Prior knowledge:
This protein has helices at residues 12-22, 36-43, 55-66, 74-85, 93-101, 107-122, 130-143, 185-188, 209-212, 214-221, 252-262, 280-287, 304-308, 336-342, 345-350; strands spanning 26-29, 47-52, 178-182, 195-200, 227-228, 233-234, 265-273, 292-301, 325-334. The protein has 15 helices and 9 strands. A 7-stranded mixed β-sheet has the order 3-2-1-4-7-9-8, with helices on both faces. Strands 5-6 form a two-stranded antiparallel sheet. The longest helix is centred in the first third of the chain and has 16 residues, at 107-122. The chain is globular. The two termini are 28 Å apart. The structure holds S-adenosylmethionine. S-adenosylmethionine binds next to helix 2.
Amino acid sequence: MIKYLGSKRRLVGVLGDLCERSGARTALDLFTGTTRVAQELKRRGVHVTANDTARYSEVLARCYVEADAAAVDGPRLDAQLAELAALPGRDGYFTETFCRRARFLQPANGMRVDAIRDALAERPDYAKHGAILLTALLEAADRVDSTTGVQMAYLKQWAPRALRPLELRRPALLPGAGRALRADALAVAPQLGEVDLAYLDPPYNQHSYFRNYHVWETLVAWDAPEHYGVACKRLDCRDPATRSVWNGRRTMPGALAELLADVRARLVVLSYHDEGWLTLAQLRELASVRGHVEVLAFPSRRYVGAQIGVHDPQGRRVGRPGRLRNVEYVLVCGEAADVRAAVGPAERLAA
Length: 351
Ligand SMILES: C[S@@+](CC[C@H](N)C(=O)[O-])C[C@H]1O[C@@H](n2cnc3c(N)ncnc32)[C@H](O)[C@@H]1O
């Protein structure tokens, strides 16, 4: 699983239990990110539709949500992974841009990324398992990157993990059917068929995922874009079309109200943060459009960058570390009986 801001690593068990208690057979994860939550629901036998605007999320969802482990040719997949792993490195766009101009990966690993990604783009025999092989490459690159988990900057000194060689591993596929989409949540929500449970985990501040994970966007798009700045961000990071309404203080509340009204689901489960722009009272008010609302609250540690603080290019600390802890809210909304059935006694105690 890639390192990802806002990833619900600590909440997956709670969300899986909620889903199971609700008796849901179908679910929608509208902001799926790493697909961690979608995977958990699929693991529990639910048919999941996983959506996100990010290209890398779509690839992860095609691999973990859409692909059926029982239908995948395992020996062939392993042979292809071994072939790709054995390719000699190639000095291409990825190495030059992200390993020399910027320093996200060691050049030796970057050259292997170039070679493997070129082979995936050029050889039709890789197409059948394309999303699975590309997921293996994304995860391999993530394991040897030199960041604090976002790609607006890289570490001044190489992270120890960056010195290890890139290693392709077979993704742990899940059995069963599912669906991957890449669409804007607000545009797609009214068009989708009704599901038993919709999980909403939108961005909650001004930081754009498109910019924070621009290296993975480029690795998937493989379009060698022009770039700018020390982090070599894609030029289209500046394009207003790549901005999300969820990253605007003024646009986010209206977007959430619209989504809560439009999403077609018996139960809606909304993740939010005590660091977001809306207070808990405002969230409750918005969520009440779905009927009864129960709020669960979970204290959690903030991502490592917040703990380290802000540094200038010479490595001097120029800002103070932010808060070290925050609270993650989970709002469960729907008919009162459905909500009560879904929320377990342990979660009520935690709230
Ligand atoms: C908080 S993260 C979700 C994390 C995810 N639940 C996980 O555990 O990995 C928010 C996600 O919303 C996506 N996103 C941003 N704007 C979007 C939009 N308009 N429609 C759909 N997804 C969007 C981002 O790419 C990001 O992956």
